[in-house]
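Sequence in, structure out. Go.
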Amino acid sequence: MSSEGLGRVLSKSNFDADGFVKNVSQGGEDDLLYTRQKVQVLADDTALALKKNVYKNYSQFIETAKEISILEGEMYQLSHMLTEQKALLNVMKEMSLVSDKADTPKGEEEGEKKEDDTRQQNLAFLLEKVEGCSKQVQNLSPLFVKVEGAARVTEVPGRYLIHASDLTELDSETFSTIQRVHAFLLNDSIMIASWLPQRKGPVKYKYQALYELDNLAVVNVKDVGPVKNAFKILMFPDARMYQAETQKDKRQWLDVLEESKKKKMALDNQKRESVINLKLPESKSLNPFETGANPFEDSNPFDDEDEVDHTPVERPPPPDNHMLLLNWVQEVPEDLDVSIAQRDFEHAVEIITVVNQHLNSAPKTPALMEYRARIEHRVKTLTDVLVSELRVSPERSLRGGPRAARRAVTQLIKLGKSAQACDLFLKNRAAIIKYNLTQVKLEGASSLYIKKFCDVFFSGMTDTVKEFQKAFPDHHGCYSAFLVWIQEEMKEFSVMFRDQVFASNKVNLTTVAECVVIARQHTDELTELGLECTFVLNGLLQPDIEKLIIDNRDQLVEAGKHRAAEDLWRPMNLKTRSAMKIYVEELNEIGLAVVKNHVDDCSISLTNNTLSFSRLYLSFVDDMCKLYTEELQTYIVAALADVFKSQVKQYERSLKAKKFIKDHKFILNNATFLIETVLKLTEEKLRRKTGISSYQMYELHTAMRKLKTISKDATPEMV
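Output:
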């Protein structure tokens, strides 16, 4: 069965799928494979036919739109002619055959001179009143010469001002007022300028947009409700509604727009006729975008080599604007409009690249400058669309990753907008990271929340670094902006981190140390990518950590004073051996294994005050080691030394007190444990962390000699 026969079978209204499958399966594996191939061929043919229909319908739609635009223009033209006839009849009624109003026509040369002077004055008005009409900025892009604002408005030869007035831009759906604008109708385009609220000097307007007359259509809007004296200007792919002050102003705009479009169309037709008269044979190889036959057609008319005439043709010398006479060059603006509408940004940039390569080799004639202005308008439209892809707005989803922005960034870079692409890319990434952080729920312990918080933030930073290196590999100037962005993001992170970790009234030092360690681990991962953020994070958190160290130092000193006031210098008794075993194991875990040498059955030959201080102090040492940086070394060592000195002073007071005269030996045993065991363990931990020995901690070893001297001096007096 052929593909056509299979197609007829499958398209029957009473087609029995189960029966068809049973019949095919009876033939075995070969029949199944053969039928599968036929179904695949039928599917491919159907897809091709569908593409042809889509292309055909799209072409018919474009042709219909053009016909409607032409008919609409003819209707306006007819209306304008009727208005002129009516005005002429009124004038004829008022004039007599010998009226003094009939002036002698001026000479043609004088009229042309006056018209040129008027046009120059109109252009001077543009230069004076509109911001951006006389400022030209060159971009170093190899693709295109970028012109800021409306710098090219007055550079097109033969362009002049026809009509200008104030209009109000309305929303085409809600009819609400958007802004007040001033419209300038030129002989080949219409320029829209917005009012400057705080203007200085003669400048009153700011350039907003420039639309070519042959690419727009004017539609009259009926007066409905609050909308009066309005009309629409349809520009591919946008549409805007404007409102005139009076009905007369609206009618004047409609008339001059249609009249200008008519003159522009006549001038274009004249240029086309001149091209035809040149009789330049065109070669299909001149079109860089024509890769062969239409993919939606069945055959290529150029496939048959016998039909191609290879006879050499004597060509006349090409004129200056020969580059603009090629059909594919003339179709480039329309091709760009279609590519932008279909969001085929890559193809649009490719077209711009090729056409500029051809234009750069062509002589700089007035026709070339006018054509380049048309291309520039499409480049601006394409740039605006790409910018909107990266711009953050409430209605856009922020769930995409950095790869979603790579397409727009790549095309903007090719258009010479690397700085703008960098700025928008970084803003887009900042918004995505901020959105992802808002999705982290505050639950459980602070360290668990900070872990999730850091995972989300630094994973976003890591993805951004990788994508930035891929998107801007050769644009080293963008890296300075990237570093500034990194610093700003780290500042935002530190603010949120401090609010969660340091802002509480009951800040736990151990919890804070764990959270800081988590954050530093993530910054170390960025360091592996070549981005040093640990130093930035430490600098941002240093003021809070310094304050935290001082506060905890004061708390430990104050707690030691209270314990010392209640200390009776009696050995610690745990009453049971099981309790003693558990307690010794706990001390062993923090490094005080020598405590077992002081155990006697259920008691320890050390006071509860000494053992409690040792546990708290060593925990404080561990937290200080976690928070340690070179910038914090002075604060950390000073805090550790101050807390230890405070405890030694409690021993001094007890040795000087009369009520503890019999306990001097026991007090000195506790001091020996504190200095020879706890202090040495502290020095060892600091040495492993910092790699150096602290002089302040070393001085504490002399405290034992001082305590013995106090005990020796106090004993004879008290006996």
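Check: Confidence is low (pLDDT under 50) at residues 96-106, 135-151, 278-286, 290-321. The CA atoms of residues 278 and 316 lie 8 Å apart.
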